[in-house]
Design a protein that fits this description.
Length: about 750
């Protein structure tokens, strides 16, 4: 495909635009939707005229963006003419003089409503300020509960923006990637758009960790030949068995995405070479009209497990009980011919369509009966949440997000009815799921006929009978017992007034303490306290102080001594962007500029939550008028900042040096033998000349495992140390572990 930026004249450009439109139209013509070519063509010509002469940041004509969004809507989500027209027109009202009324007059009420919904949330989920951003998100949910096509088109819009993010400045890339990973990817997953969710995660990762992305992509490419050989060897006996059953089927391979590989490496502290489930097999079958999909899934399962032994704990039956996003499939992990575990996913053509295209395909297969699918139930919970919104817009965003990320568990009522809940849900969550009155009077439950408290965390398959008492009065501590957005919203609404009073008391107490020490309640100080106490917003901090959960007596010694005075902080160098100006100007007035921090500057600090060291991918957050906090890009706190305060993010890179030392922790594991600890310590202190501050190693049944905290110059030195330690006889693994506070 020719690059539109390289076209020489307007005629060539117009021909290119027409060609892109015709390609999109050809995809639509192949679909099973009623063909409304005339309406789509009318929308395209109208959009071309409306955006005439306007260009994107990359230099290409603006109209190519709506065409691309319409193509994603048609090809990757599978929507029809109404959605395609709305996609072509989605920026017309926001960017031109045309109004929603103009759209309605030309294209009818439904298309106008969808365009209006998209215009209301046009700034992305996120606006200038955090509260504005959460308000935009509320609008998104309102339009989603009215017409799901609004959010599906918004997904296509975000996907195309991510695909063309390279033309944006780095700070903008970090902001957009951050909000994509924070909201859009989990929302795509919740809507069953698995392919889009995976691509959004990979693209976000690509812009946040470009070097790591390239490294992992290269390693995946290098393993292709061995994966192909394994696939041929593994699938041949299965194909033979399925042929004997007389089935119509296809077998495909699915390679784990770059982002999911990286996440696994991070969470399990393992290198790429130890990610053994890179390859999965997908069997898609076409049943005859009189054949049961469920029965065929189990027949194929039987054929697979006749060839290879299944892992007893890794069978997932989402055919009998579909996941909350509508996903249906039977998964089994079996031992392959070369002694490695391989996951096999078994789906019918209908199941595969729903898995790849989510909600749109879910509609396609509706039977006309009352739909009580998990997706419909989820939309109903959104409506309830909107009817009882959080007192604070950011609380609302956080509360909703709880239900976006959650994996599901299936819980039974005493009558055998099945309920789907987020993983980690408690007895109290279940009570509020049944009814608000049941929740407020709940005193406990019988879980599998055994008495359990309100805080008991439920497991998939539990049968739960809620016990209530009219004498029960809800407690504000209940907020700590619940996981679901519904229960949290209900409990918060019960304690709004009391919560505010305690919060005010805490704020007053902190202010009095600061006044007595001649200190002010600056954003810098509040940010440090939030990090230290594992809180995400100042209201939570004030509430914890008001409840005496935080000891104010320790605040002066923890926060009143300037951390910039520590030895390594004084000389630490950071280069923001590539401009070499001194950091003398006020950060808020220079968000678009790049800054260099010299040894003598004191307008930055390292985030306690993730403690980055030279070599880590980092970003700077403008904390106060002339203050920066430096986080790792993948730090959960930084992810939230990117999403909620994206305009305060600046790109940052380390200035290389070998002068200063930074704290880091490694985890060692191996076979215990006489003198092994001495050899480990010798490699660290003698051979690599690295100082240790803490050594904690335990041995059990001939195996040792432990953590060692060191002072290291940068990531390169740390990697070299890990390689040298792996040479110690009996050592099995050495990995850097993240700061514990990150997960809080």
């Amino acid at each position: 495909m020719e690059n539109p930026q390289n076209l020489n004249n307007i005629e060539d450009e117009n021909a290119y635009i027409e060609n892109q439109y015709q390609e999109m139209l050809a995809i639509y013509k192949k679909s099973a939707h009623r063909q409304k070519i005339e309406l789509i063509d009318k929308a395209f010509r109208f959009a071309v005229d409306a955006h005439q002469g306007v260009r994107r940041r990359s230099g290409e004509p603006y109209i190519l963006h709506p065409i691309s969004v319409a193509r994603i809507v048609a090809e990757e989500i599978g929507l029809g003419s109404t959605s395609i027209c709305a996609a072509l027109l989605h920026d017309v009202v926001e960017d031109t003089e045309y109004t929603v009324e103009d759209i309605e007059e030309r294209f009818g009420k439904k298309i106008a409503q969808i365009v209006d919904g998209l215009t209301k949330i046009s700034g992305g989920v996120f606006g200038e300020q955090a509260s504005k951003q959460a308000e935009n998100f509320r609008k998104l949910l309102l339009t989603m509960s009215e017409d799901i096509r609004v959010v599906l088109i918004k997904m296509a819009d975000r996907l195309h923006n991510m695909r063309t993010l390279a033309s944006m400045p780095q700070a903008k890339q970090l902001k957009i990637a951050g909000e994509t990973q924070y909201i859009y990817a989990p929302l795509a997953n919740r809507l069953g758009l698995y392919a889009i969710k995976t691509e959004l995660e990979d693209l976000s990762f690509k812009y946040e960790h470009p070097d790591k992305y390239e490294e992992l992509s290269s390693k995946i490419a290098k393993t292709k030949e061995s994966r192909d050989k394994l696939f041929e060897m593994f699938s041949a006996p299965i194909s033979k068995a399925l042929d004997a059953l007389g089935l119509k089927y296809e077998i495909h391979t699915r390679v784990k995405s770059v982002y999911s590989i990286w996440r696994k490496m991070q969470t399990k502290n393992i290198p790429f070479e130890e990610v053994y489930d890179l390859l999965a097999l997908r069997i898609i079958f076409d049943p005859d009209e009189n054949q049961s999909e469920k029965k065929l899934c189990w027949e194929i399962y039987s054929a697979v497990t006749d060839q290879y032994k299944p892992h007893p704990d890794r069978i997932r039956d989402w055919v009998s009980t579909p996941r909350a996003n509508g996903y249906e499939a039977l998964h089994v992990t079996v031992m392959g011919p070369l002694g490695q575990w391989v996951e096999v996913q078994i789906r019918s053509r209908r199941m595969d369509d729903i898995a790849e295209k989510g909600f749109a395909a879910h509609w396609k297969y509706k039977t006309g009966e009352k739909d009580d699918s998990e997706l419909e139930k989820w939309l109903q919970t959104i409506k309830e949440l909107l009817e009882n919104p959080e007192p604070n817009a950011i609380d609302f965003l956080d509360t909703f997000k709880l239900n976006l990320f959650a994996s599901e568990i299936f819980v039974f009522t005493p009558n055998g009815d099945i309920k789907t809940m987020p993983q980690g849900s408690t007895v109290l969550d279940f009570a509020f799921l049944l009814h608000t009155d049941v929740g407020t009077t709940c005193i406990g439950a019988k879980v599998n006929h055994k008495l359990e408290p309100l805080s008991y965390v439920l497991n998939s398959g539990d049968q739960v009978e809620i016990l209530t008492s009219k004498k029960q009065t809800p407690s504000e501590d209940w907020i700590d017992y619940v996981k679901t957005a519904r229960a949290r919203a209900k409990i918060r609404s019960l304690f709004k007034k009391e919560y505010r009073n305690i919060m005010k008391k805490g704020e007053t107490s902190l202010k009095e303490l600061l006044d007595s020490h001649g200190q002010s309640m600056s954003r810098d100080l509040i940010s440090q306290m939030l990090e230290h106490y594992g809180k995400t917003k100042k209201e939570e901090l004030f509430y914890a102080i008001g409840k005496s959960q935080i000891n104010l007596d320790e605040v002066p010694k923890l926060f009143f001594k300037a951390k910039a005075e520590s030895k390594w902080m004084k000389f630490w160098k950071l280069q923001f962007g590539s401009n070499k100006k001194e950091a003398k100007e006020t950060a808020n007035t220079n968000k678009s500029k790049v800054l260099t921090l010299t040894e003598s500057s004191k307008n930055y600090r390292i985030a306690e939550c993730c403690q980055p060291i030279p070599g880590d991918d980092i970003l700077g957050f403008i904390e106060d008028e002339n203050k920066f906090v430096v986080h790792k890009c993948q730090c959960p706190v930084a992810m939230k900042l990117k999403a909620s305060h994206g305009d305060n993010i600046v790109s940052a890179v380390w200035e290389t040096h070998k002068v200063l030392s930074f704290p880091a922790t490694i985890r060692v594991n191996g076979i215990d033998s006489q003198g092994v600890l001495s050899r480990i310590l010798n490699v660290i202190s003698e051979e690599n000349e690295i100082n240790m501050t803490k050594v904690n190693i335990d041995t059990k049944d001939g195996i040792f495992e432990g953590d060692i905290t060191l002072y290291i110059h940068d990531v390169e030195d740390l990697n070299n140390l890990c390689l040298n330690l792996l040479k110690v006889h009996g050592m099995k693994s050495v990995n850097r572990i993240e700061n514990d506070k990150q997960g809080k």
